[in-house]
Amino acid sequence: MRFAVYATAALAALLAQAAHAGEFKVGSADGTEISGFADLPAQPARLTVVFVPGTGLFDRDAPFGKSGTLRDLVFKDLSARMVARGAATVRYDVRGIRYGMPPDQMVDLKLLAGRTTQNMREDVAAVYDWARSPGGTGTRCTVFFVHSEGMIHVARLAAAGAPAPASIIGVGAAMEGPAATLRWQLTGRDADSLEMMDADRNGIVTNDEVKANLSRTPSGAHGVLEPFLHPSGQWTAADIAQVRTIQTQLCEKHQQETLAHADTDPYPKAETPFTAYEWWKSWFIDDQPAGARLAPWGMPVILHYGDKDSQTPATRQIAAAKQHLPAEQLKIHLHPDRGHTLGPDVLFGPIDEAIADQIAEEAARAPC
Predict the structure, then answer these.
(1) Under a CB-based contact definition with an 8 Å cutoff, are residues 334 and 317 in contact?
(2) Fold (CATH) for 12-176+289-364
(3) How far apart are CA 348 and CA 74, in angstroms?
(4) I need a surface site. Which of 13, 186, 337, 356 has the fewest CB within 10 A?
(5) Domain parsing of the chain, residue ranges
(6) What does the pLDDT look like over 54-110, one tens digit per residue?
């Protein structure tokens, strides 16, 4: 009798979850419809992982790889690994992206031009609320999986007073303030990369060293060699310092030009909008670290970084995380010879298979 009651209850739970599998649509705070997909395991799940992408026009699958295989669909691949371990997952299409449409119909230019830090956060909130609702996946608790800028959106959600998740898992997560992250990208990345190319550590970086090592440094993400070849055949410490000086001056000019725009102007231009200028401005003026915004939630945070990350350098992000979050709340993994998406490339995925399985295990075992 007890088995029959248990089996009936388990079947009812499974049927309830199955009813929520597949496509979903949810209204964001301004009424914009956000679409996504919920993946459910064969047995009733105890938790749901909500995926939050980083900077880019990503659909629910997050295509961001260079392997030429289905593993390049970074979120879809990772979701399958989590579902296989008993977790439910929820992935969504960023506002302005139409999933599964031909390239000429994939984007809604009006929605892209209106994307702001606020409605990006509100889109995450809408998906999060749906996942946690009776009409969502039907699980007891929720975990965020975030990539890169996704941590900034989730941190802003925390600062806005949203209920805390069970935990957060981040890959290449931006834990510094947005402005600090962009300043490094615009004024520090190239100089730091040149210094990293000094294979024999003699203070001189030859063009041969550049050719041999550029692809393994953050500046390898640019995908071009010529700007890093010095006319004299080598870079001195003074030359590299000059790179920092010149790029700092260019950054300051860029900031002035950016802040002169109205928040509602399409960025970078009306013909090919990516966001509204308000979002781009935030990368120059918002210096509040993600950790400071996350602190009120007080839940475990697991961070994964590659040691050759081209966008969010591990040493800086780890330092920022430790500055604002207590040690008992943090678990940090630094992966040798891996990049921003934990693959061999400094920027792109797919995630290394062993690391992807490790992350899936962490998600499935999250404390609830």
Answers:
(1) no
(2) Rossmann fold (3.40.50)
(3) 10
(4) 337
(5) 12-176+289-364, 183-267
(6) 999 999 999 999 999 999 999 999 999 999 999 999 999 999 999 999 989 999 999
